[in-house]
Amino acid sequence: MKLHSLVDDIYSQLSGLSEGKEFNLKEEDLDMTMSRIKSSILEWSKPSERNTEFTLRMSNIGRPLRQLWYESKAEPRSHTIDGATQIKFLYGHILEEIVLMLVRAAGYAVTDEQKEVTVKGIKGHIDCKISGEVVDIKTASRIAFNKFKEGRLAEDDPFGYMSQLAGYEEAEHTEEGGFLVINKESGELCFYQPEDLDKPNINTRIKNIKDALKLSTPPPRCYESVPDGKKGNMKLNKNCNYCPHKFDCYADANGGQGLRGFKYSNGITYLTHVEVAPRVEEYEPKAV
Length: 288
What we know:
Elements: H1 6-18, H2 27-44, H3 65-73, H4 83-105, E1 110-111, E2 116-119, E3 122-125, E4 128-130, E5 133-140, H5 142-149, H6 161-172, E6 178-183, E7 189-192, H7 202-213, E8 226-227, E9 234-235, H8 246-249, H9 253-256, E10 260-264, E11 267-273, E12 281-283
Helix pairs in contact: 2-4, 3-7
């Protein structure tokens, strides 16, 4: 079964509920889904390892070179995840299992779930294969969902999802895979199948990463600063805001003073150049 019709086939099955038809849910598929949801909850409930040494993984090879360089040099440290984010992780795992249940109910073969693969010594685990092709299951907010739905992921991919998919496909010798995404706000599904030219050459990518990690100084910055208003101030690119290495990365900002943070009602704005100080509270940023 061709993946381009996957979402339509799932919707077709679901539309029968409104027409008084029973949903095509086999007992064994339901048992499998409930068992996997239970396993996901149990795995989520256990503390994960924190203070581990940096390693290249399929899940991080798509990140910018400079970010990876800083991660490789940083001291191992614990990272506190707040309660709301823990809940978000939990229902993300559950939603992924429900999506796969719908895929099976639509008549598609789901195999190789969490299979370990290796490319150039870098390991990862694929979410699954659907009809023999590698598919990454994603839960997304509306804004992130639209990047997949509109085919714009290659233009704005700060988490490196395209490299991750390319790595899995290289390991499995397939090339027609993609991303099955659910909008966790609306329940809408989409399947994004990238063009070959949009996917990076993963062997070249891995070589470039390994070469960059050997450098004594960091590679060029991942993203350029952007204007903040019309008075000459410059701020971090949005993709840098949550990077734990931003203070080290911009230690030379503001004439060597480093990043300056200003507290607005909608959060903190980090300025790399202050021409005119904003009329809001300033604080001394702390590395995370």
